[in-house]
Amino acid sequence: MDRWIADRMQRIDASGIRKVFDLAAKLKDPINLSIGQPHYDTPEPIKQALYRAVAEGKNVYSQTQGIAPLIDKIQADVDRQYAQPDRKVFISSGTSGGLLLALSVLVNPGDEVLVFDPYFVMYRHQVSLLGGRTVEIPTYPDFRLDLDRVRDAITPRTKVILFNSPGNPTGAVPTAAEIEGLAKLAAERDVALISDEIYRAFCYDAPFVSPARWNERTIVVDSFSKSHSMTGWRLGWVHAPSELVQQMLKLQQFTFVCAPHPVQYAGVVAYDYDISDRVADYRQKRDFMHRELSSHYEIAGAQGAFYLLPKAPWGTASEFVAEAIAQGLLIIPGQVFSSRDTHFRISYAAEQKTLERGVEVLKRLARKQ
Question: 202, 166 in Cβ contact below 8 A?
Fold first, then answer.
């Protein structure tokens, strides 16, 4: 059967995060700080909107671009924010679906895609699937956006810069000046800029800023998954120049077909739903984790999302994580997101008592050095 498997699959490894999830199922009462999704349930009004849509028969295909009530609502907001007449919205099957469509219409075999290391694990594998080459721009030790490094990494084969703020796994949020510089550099060098904004609601120390403010050709990918606890609902959106949107829709028609139809009606309610209490709670959790751990670990980033990426105080990060798991604490080794095996990811999207248990184990592990 091996000869049936396409060569491209040899370039894609099983997710290290999934391996931790599988391990969690075997442990009794683990302290789970590994999961990259909100610990809250989906808000009840959004659930009710889904129930109504199903009951009303909204269970067939929608238009490929999505339903008009949701597109119109998001398009009006995008127009207000950016005032770019050619920027158009369509509805995607989550952020991952939007990213795959965007990369698919841009990347030819052999093209280079710049990502910032550490990066979300999916980026490298989607680029590999398309025959592209991922070029990693290191951001260690402070996870800052260094424009000189970006400039030096651009070659004639560079097709895309893939940018994520707030970042997974670092929680880093570049300054507005850094983001402006990246946007203008991409425009100057005629490189496509994809902005993954799935954590845009979770900026704790400064307002969210998109590179689309300074680069009209930026492709923005977003979703309800993290902000509204809808990870399993597969509902996102993309906005970009109309020519690129048309190409992505052409591909969506023959792949995802459309985002789940009844879920799109729930999205109409979700888009206006106030999540400020959840954002405030995660800000408090960020502050708690940083306060408790910063004297034991080197921690950079952490201005947004719900992640910390501390440096392992001894051994490799993989060795450190193995010891943590042995003590019942589930965290993710940084090499899942990086070429380096020096850091580990904590998700503080958990109940406070779980965070407190996790902090005690982490303090105990730090003292082993």
Answer: yes
**Nearest alpha-carbon partner for 342 in 79, 72, 141, 159:** 141
Q: What is the pLDDT of residues 82-119, one digit of tens each?
A: 999 999 999 999 999 999 999 999 999 999 999 999 99
Q: What are phi and psi of 344, to 5 degrees?
A: -140, 150
- Helix (H), strand (E) at residue 247: helix 242-253
As a whole number of angstroms, the distance between CA 188 and CA 184 comes to 6
For residue 298, count CB atoms less than 10 angstroms from its CB and return exposed for 0-12, middle for 13-18, buried for 19 or more.
middle
Q: What domains are defined for the chain?
A: 2-42+275-366 (3.90.1150.10), 58-270 (3.40.640.10)
- Please state, as a whole number, how many other Cβ atoms lie within 10 Å of the Cβ of residue 38: 23
Environment class of 369 (CB within 10 Å of its CB; exposed 0-12, middle 13-18, buried 19+): exposed
pTM above 0.85, yes or no: yes
Cα angle: 333, vertex 336, 337; to 5 degrees: 110
